[in-house]
Known about the structure:
Elements: H1 3-16, H2 20-53, H3 59-69, H4 74-85, H5 100-136, H6 141-151, H7 153-168, H8 172-178, H9 188-198, H10 201-224
Helix pairs in contact: 1-10, 2-5, 2-6, 2-7, 4-5, 4-8, 5-6, 5-7, 5-8, 6-7, 7-10, 9-10
Amino acid sequence: MSAVAASAATALDLIAHADPELVRTVALSFMVSGTACFAAAWLGVPAGAWLAAAQFPGRRALLLVLDTLLALPSVVAGLVVYLLLSRSGPLGSWGILFTPTAMVIAQTILVLPVVAALARQVVADGLAEGGEQLRALGAGPAMRAALMLVHARWAVVTLLLVAFGRAVSEVGAVMIVGGNIAGVTRVMTTSIALETSKGDLPLALALGLVLLSLVALLNVVVALVPRSPGLAGATWR
């Protein structure tokens, strides 16, 4: 049996027997990315809806900034959080660098622009179809945005799943602010990178299979979510 086949067999055995380290790493990944997506949704969905419904000076500039942040590299997000939380940084007194909390903050910053931009597109598409009717009925910007979010709720579910997939599959930000400490801040992506560099292919393959299965499951769920015009043909602007 070749080395690759042997490693794959061992990886499947680790998954089948719920290896403790594997389970701990996967659980931490879910906790960090899930919390980050919840925070990003709490901030980004209302912000994106407001950007779609409101008109104010500087709106175009703000949209340009949001579009730019969509391409924010994960390592840059990690670097910004590291500088803020390091001992010499303005938030160094918090003492949360190299903890899951720092990782949540970094991933929140990373996925927040995605959530806000998609939520803005959802509401903008809805308002293009029925916004004038709501305006004629006396609904203000906040009410129109809220009604569009309710109307396109399945599109909102889809964008949150997209954000979670973005968070759980990134490696740069959590590596920088988490330090990849075993049993403390080691998540699936950072563990795969470390185990591969060490030559421990079975654990890296097992985590890779779990991560790929998770991404595939998210894609299936997104495909099964009832279609909404909110995300159809999204153009970000």
